[in-house]
Every structure is written in C-alpha cells, then in structure tokens.
Amino acid sequence: MPRILIFGAGGVGSFYAHLLTKVGADITVVCRSNYQAVKEHGIVLDSPKYGKGVRIRPGVVSSPVDAVGDWDLILVCSKAFPGMNPSVPQLIKPAVGPKTAIALLQNGIHIEDEYQEAFPDNPIISCTIYLPVTEIYPGHVDHQEDLEILELGTFPSRPPIAHIQACLEFRNLIKTAGGEATIYSDVQLRRWIKVAVNAAWNPVCALTLSSDSLFLSSSPYADRMIKDVMLEVVAVAQAQGYSEINEGMVEEQLSRARNRVGSFGKEPSMLGDVRMGRRMEVEAIVGGVLKCAWEKKVPCPRLEVIYCLIKAVDESYARTREIAASNNWTGS
Amino acid sequence: MPRILIFGAGGVGSFYAHLLTKVGADITVVCRSNYQAVKEHGIVLDSPKYGKGVRIRPGVVSSPVDAVGDWDLILVCSKAFPGMNPSVPQLIKPAVGPKTAIALLQNGIHIEDEYQEAFPDNPIISCTIYLPVTEIYPGHVDHQEDLEILELGTFPSRPPIAHIQACLEFRNLIKTAGGEATIYSDVQLRRWIKVAVNAAWNPVCALTLSSDSLFLSSSPYADRMIKDVMLEVVAVAQAQGYSEINEGMVEEQLSRARNRVGSFGKEPSMLGDVRMGRRMEVEAIVGGVLKCAWEKKVPCPRLEVIYCLIKAVDESYARTREIAASNNWTGS
C-alpha cells in the first residue's frame, strides 16, 4: 500500500487522511498547531457522507524533518503562500524521493512554479477542490455539507508519461476509497474558473469586512464594480487561451450572490483570515492572476488596486503579529 | 458687531470661535457631544500662535433650533456628509435669515450643492483649510503646529455682488482678529488641489490601516498604484478646467510621503475615523470627485474601486454602530 505524507492537517488535510485510510494507505500527517491533540486523540471527522465521530490514528509528526524518506505521495494541504521563506518545497524536501508524487490541494494561480523548480523530475499533481470542511477544534473536523469535488491534473499539462501515471494512481486511490475525483487534461482551466470568482470576492470582502450580499448592498455601484473586477480576471484567463471563461460565467456567479442579498450572505476565506488576523493567500489568489496579466499585457487597473490594498492589509496584520510575538503574547 | 453661529464645535469650530471672539463678535456655538463641557467651562485653546490655556465663553446651544434668528454669518465646521438625512441645510434653517452668509469650512467636492439648493439667495462662502487642530478632550482644543491657512471664495465663483461683499467681510473679520485668510476668485481650484491628495490617501490609508509611509512600504507596486489613483483625480480636475493640477503636483505630494518612508508616517483623517468606528467623509472626498468624473466622462476605474470599497467599509461600521445603539451600548 502506498506511503502517503500529508503536509497540513487542517480541514482539507484531515479529510483526505480519513479518505485514504479507507484504502489501507500508510499515512503520516504533518501537524503544527494541532500536533498535541492529533498525537493524543487522532483525527475525528463528522461528515454527512462518511459518518459522524469517525476517528483515525495516522502517524503524526510536527515537521517533515521527522518524516525523512522516499514517500510515494505527498499531499500539500496547507494554505498557499508562494514566495514564503522557507518555502513548502524547502520544508518537504527531506521527504521527497526520486519518484515521490506531490499533489497540491491549494487555491490560486502560479502556485506550482516553486515545486517544479525544486523538484523538476517529480510528478506534480495540481488540484482544485470544493470541500466545505472546518477544523472546529484541534483534531476535530466538520464536513459541513455533502459537497466534495476534487479536480486534478498534471503540472505542466503535458508531462512525461510517468507523471500521468502518478496522477491516475492518485485519482484511483480516491475513487477506491469511495471519494470523488475527476482528471482534467488541463486542470489550469479549473483553477481559472475558481480564481475568476475568488480573486474578486476574497479581497473585496476582506477589505470591506462584508459578506458578498452585504457588499452588494453597500452602494448602487458595488454590483458593477465587482463585475468589472471579475471581467478583468476573465480577460486574463482568455489571454491564457481559456475562452470557456467569459462574461456569462461571471453573470452566473454574480446572480448567486445577488440572490443572497437580504440575507447574511457568504463570507469567503480571506474575510475569515482578516477577522482572525491570519495571513491571507494574497499572492496565490490575486498576485498569481496579475503575474499572468503582466506577462500577457492585459490591463487590470482595478485588480492592481485591489492587490495593493489587500497586500498592505496583510502587511499591516503581519506587523501586529510580529509585535505580539516579540512581546510573547502568543504561544507560537 | 456681527452675530455669528458656529455649527460644529470640534477643533476647527472651536478655533474660529476663539479667533472671532477677538473682534468682539457675538458668537454662539452649536455643540453635540461636548455640549455639557462647553456650557460649563467654555472652550480652552492651546496654540503656539494664540497662547496656551486661553478660555472663551461663547453662547452654547445643543441644536440650531435653540438659535432661531437672523444671524449675520453661520460657519459650518462639522464634517461634510452630503446626502445625510437630515441635511445640515435642514438643521440650520431656523437660524438662516434672508441675508445670512453661510461659510463652509469643510473638505471635499460638490459639498456646496445642498446649501445652494436650500438657500439660493444667501451668500455661500466655500473654504479650504489647513489647520492642525484636535479636540483633546471635550471643550479643550490643541492647535498642534503654527499652521493656519484659510482659503475662501464665493460659491458659485461668479455670484451677485452682495455675496462677494459677504465674502470680503468674512475675510476682513479674520484678518482683523489677527488670523490668516486669502480670497480666491475661484476657490474650487483650491478644493481640487486639496482633494487630489485626499481622495487617494484618505481611503487608501483607511482601507489598509496604514499610514502613508507604511502603505508605500507594503509592496513594490504601492507607489505606482497611489500615483495612478492621484492621476485619475488630476484628469478630472483638468476636465473641470484646472490645468494647474498636473502630474508635477502629484510627484511633489508623493515625494513628501516617500521622504517619510522608514518613519511612522502620516495618518489621514479617514484612518482615524475607521479606527474609532466613526463615519467617514466618503461622499464629500471620493464621491464628489466621481460625480464630476461621470459628468465629464473621465474614466476613473481605480477611484471607482476605491469608492466602492470605502463606501462598503463605512456601511459596515454603520451597521456595527446601529447594533451598538439598539443595545444601548452608547450614550448617544
């Protein structure tokens, strides 16, 4: 059975630790804040599909340094912070063997670059997920609704045949466990579909401390503004060759948010992060799109403004965290 | 001696109450939160120019309803919230006689419209001020540095001769008191010079919880972004005929902020407001510029994004204040 290392045991990592346990895989999770809880009590999952209160006891380490070895598969389930130092590729290096496949279950655009640079010969599997899971307390994960979508493909989309094989094996593992997984010949299209919404809603809601519906209600111009931002992302996606991403898709996405006006609405992840003073996936979600825009010379004046603003907020919170840490206010 | 009503006795209103007391004017101030303090103890001013701990005892009312009458001059020194209900013109109506001059000591663009509509025959004096005054506690005002600039002119710039006369009289009162005041034939130019900086820095700093220098340090793109926003305001000013407002002016303004990089920098008023959960002058400072941009069909994609974001933040804080008020957490 395959030996699998899961880097990041929040909601997503814990969910797939559960799923892959079903096929008898030898699983070790790399935990940070929840290390002690998972070490002592394992990981409990509440899921409408996989049962309530199901406990597993995978191997647990606090760092990949403690998981040196030639793993068959590493799932990266942490948030994506391209440009972070040390990078995740640097952190997982001790666990990567010559044939280790690395699956990235993360949001954003251009997040694969660092992994490809660090491990040019290893299979890199790029994944988009729609999975409403939350770690409600350390080691206890709640799968809130019966939604489980995993879209995967190789990076780059035309890799050596062995990389395609690794991608197929990962898909088969998930399916054998009873889970959902669909292979796409160009998974970047799936990433662009997700980011076309995320690159606009995430920073706008975080900057305004508003859910999607509350933002739409905030002024007569808000609806047009968010649409204009999404259309900039659409133009970038189209310049990349993704003509499937168009204004109709934006309208469909917006209509869902418009239908929520009058209710509390939905809060994207970055708004949760800003409320908690946590680091936001600014580079992966907004910066990655702009990197493509600049390469293809697609003007994105609105997205650039939003990027600079959310980047400055992220830096502002980073200063606060540094001060807190230097005063020993946090235990981290 | 003239009878003068001062609407809004924060820093600016209190400062001019002091100045105009010197010429023996009969002054009444309309106080809100500091009513009790000013009623009992008067207004104390600490100023490098006008002395430390100087106390005056003007008339004090809590509403213009208590100041019914044919005042010679009303100084509006509250923040500018065009579109507010009730409007300041509605509030001061009981105090406005057929010849009462109304001087607006407020920021922004298009703030005079409501007054002209309500009082089409009264002299309206539009003023730009640079005056670092703060109410450090109720009824005690600190003039922090020896800066005192009052730029004034009629609204509109070509009014009946009686309105020009009222403007001259106001200037002369200030000068007689030993203060600074300069009449401009088109004071709107002075407003545009101030707003070209304010419309960019105010919301950007408020949205990012950063001083000007901290924002400039937040990413390699921040400098270009704030300049691009200012250049949009410049284009609107130029479309209004103000060719004096140009890229050179923007560069000069930006170089001051750049020189502050490495230090804590300056915090514009909207950042203070957002920290205190207070209402921000979004419509006066950003909305007023956009109103002109739309009239003149000048594209302002960046400023529109910033407007929608800061508007949504303002609404978000308004919801918080409403909840607080309905729970009786505030005394207001």
TrEMBL record, chains A, B:
Molecular function via GO: 2-dehydropantoate 2-reductase activity
Gene3D superfamilies cross-referenced by the UniProt entry: N-(1-d-carboxylethyl)-l-norvaline Dehydrogenase, domain 2, NAD(P)-binding Rossmann-like Domain
The EC number(s) this enzyme carries: 1.1.1.169
One annotated GO biological process: pantothenate biosynthetic process
Any one GO CC term of the record: cytoplasm
SUPFAM superfamilies: 6-phosphogluconate dehydrogenase C-terminal domain-like, NAD(P)-binding Rossmann-fold domains
InterPro entries in UniProt: 6-PGluconate_DH-like_C_sf, 6PGD_dom2, ApbA, KPA_reductase, KPR-Related, KPR_N, NAD(P)-bd_dom_sf
Keywords, sorted A to Z: NADP, Oxidoreductase
Role: Catalyzes the NADPH-dependent reduction of ketopantoate into pantoic acid.
UniProt name for this protein: 2-dehydropantoate 2-reductase
